[in-house]
Design a protein that fits this description.
Layout lengths: L19 E3 L6 E3 L4 H6 L4 E2 L3 E5 L5 H17 L2 E6 L4 H5 L3 E3 L2 H23 L5 H4 L17 E6 L2 H4 L4 E5 H9 L10 H11 L4 H15 L15 E6 L19 H14 L3 E7 L7 H9 L3 E7 L16 E7 L16 E5 L4 E5 L7 H13 L17
Parallel strand pairs: 4-10, 4-11, 5-8, 5-9, 9-10
Antiparallel strand pairs: 1-2, 2-3, 6-7, 11-12, 12-13, 13-14
Helix pairs in contact: 9-10
């Protein structure tokens, strides 16, 4: 006799693509950015099907480092790569990717960190903490027990064979812009109206239209669309657009009279494409070069996650002893709200980043103790000691309450 009894605890196991995991907050599929500390700040990782924009620092060196981490993590995880850049060339970026660290090195470094933490805790037990910091909650920038993503060594370069062991497609903005200028029909041979009609019918008008068509073909040809059947050998496509919107892309964003809608139209099409693909797009944009603030706000709204890097290089904070342990500030401008009404909220928004010899970390900004109250008390004591001051004192004896 057949029954409908089923044993509890037996569920169909879901197979996720390599290098991914579901979010604990909204069950959204996540991938690692290559920087575990940043993954922890933004909610565990970057959601699949979203756009992650990094507003570059003044010189763009730290934003370029984040894009290299993103690409290196994708290669180690077996993900496909699509890289578009104007300066530097995409091939030079792929030749300078950091090498991943073995598990043995991670264990030894973790044991060393744990030993140092035990020594610090033993020494701190005999010391008194200031009363203003006793009620502050503990904050951890990295979760040592969470095994998601990989760690990389900046002093070593990944082998070229390993880089091209996954499907890699590049898009050189400089070469594509030069190809668009070389038109079989010249302006001198035909009228201006016929020339523009030919360009609009047979050739894309801008680099952005060529790029969006190239990304669309990569998604379809590689089987990254959500409409494709068969999830057994499914992988993720990592898209990196380096320096998007810079003058090297042929975009004149410095014109204050009117905003060119070419860039915002491209982001709108890209976001619609990401929603129906197993892909994640990382964009680095030099927003400090844009003179129109409305364009920056539009770009932020068209992206799902937006962070900004504020470097101390060339500013007064570079020599400020308060920030001597950091290289810049890390601002979280926008976080996605996926499958929920309320998005992830980090424990603290006062974040900073530092670039060490072997890795880049993002952690809470720890400032030295504020000694303003001590200075005020010293001044008050000096005022009380003056003759004729308003205080409960006799001519020869001072009473302190």
């Amino acid at each position: 006799m057949a029954t409908s009894f089923r044993k509890k605890g037996i569920r169909s196991r879901t197979i996720y693509p390599p290098g991914t995991r579901p979010s604990l907050h909204n069950n959204q599929l996540l991938i690692s950015s290559g920087v575990p500390s940043m993954d922890n700040m933004i909610g565990g990782g970057i959601a699949v099907g979203t756009i992650f924009m990094v507003e570059e620092d003044t010189f763009g060196s730290y934003a370029r480092q984040l894009s290299k981490y993103f690409l290196a993590e994708g290669i180690v995880s077996g993900h496909a790569i699509f890289l578009a850049s104007s300066e530097p060339d995409p091939s030079s970026i792929l030749k300078d990717l950091p090498k991943d660290i073995d598990d043995k090195e991670i264990k030894t470094s973790g044991a060393h960190v744990q030993e140092t933490e035990q020594k610090v805790s033993s020494t701190d037990s005999s010391m008194r903490i200031a009363w203003r910091y006793q009620t502050q909650p503990k904050f951890e920038s990295t979760l040592s027990y969470a095994k998601f993503g990989h760690y990389f060594d900046l002093t070593k370069v990944m082998d070229e064979e390993r880089v091209y062991s996954v499907p890699v497609r590049t898009f050189s903005v400089t070469n594509e812009a030069a190809d668009l200028l070389e038109c079989p029909v010249k302006r001198q041979e035909v009228s201006l109206q016929e020339y523009h009609e030919y360009r609009s019918n047979y050739e894309p008008a801008t680099v952005y239209e060529t790029l969006i068509s190239r990304i669309t073909s990569t998604v379809k040809d590689g089987g990254f669309s959500t409409s494709e059947k068969g999830l057994e050998n499914r992988t993720i496509l990592r898209i990196v657009l380096h320096g998007l919107g810079s003058p090297l892309w042929g975009e004149e964003n410095s014109t204050p009279s009117a905003i060119n809608t070419t860039l915002t139209r491209f982001l709108f099409q890209l976001r619609a494409l990401m929603r129906s693909a197993f892909a994640v797009c990382l964009i680095t944009a030099p927003t400090h070069l844009f003179q129109e603030s409305a364009l920056i706000r539009r770009m932020q709204r068209l992206c799902d996650t937006v962070v900004k890097l504020e470097s101390f290089v060339g500013s007064d904070n570079e020599t400020n002893p308060v920030y001597q342990d950091y290289h810049g500030l890390f601002h979280i401008i926008r976080l996605p709200r996926l499958n929920s009404l309320v998005g992830h909220s980090p424990e603290s928004f006062d974040l900073a980043f530092k670039l060490r010899r072997k890795k880049m970390t993002i952690e809470k900004l720890h400032l030295p103790p504020d000694l303003a109250e001590t200075a005020n008390r010293t001044q008050e004591d000096s005022i009380r000691g003056k003759p004729g001051a308003l205080s409960c004192q006799s001519s020869n004896l001072r009473l302190d309450f």
